[in-house]
Amino acid sequence: MSQYSIPIKYRRMENLHIVFWLFKDIGWCLFWKPLGLVMIIPTLAISVMIAYRTREMVSELCHNLAITFWISANSYWMISEFMGYDTLHVYGPVTYKHLAIIPFMMGVFCLVYYYVIWQPKNPNAIETM
Asked: From CA 60, how far away is CA 52, in angstroms rounded?
């Protein structure tokens, strides 16, 4: 059986990513705009770097892209609340906050692609999921 291992420098980066993500969400929760807004940059940047570094393994790439889209949606939602346009209507009952569904769904599509299309077509591939 093959074993998946993560180089220690990548694991440290992933752990630091969690710290940034938590501070971003703490800033959002406590309405500390500067903290929340500043933490978007390292949180999203590291997420993109992690996805890029795992591009060779489809399972890792799809899951890491889903996380990147999740952080993007989350960040947009936070910004819309911070800037006060989250409750303004785009069309009918749809508000600007609801537009966060676009990157959320992009993340879902990454996972649907992996589990419904790629994995069944590649049952013998060595993957992490």
From this structure: 10
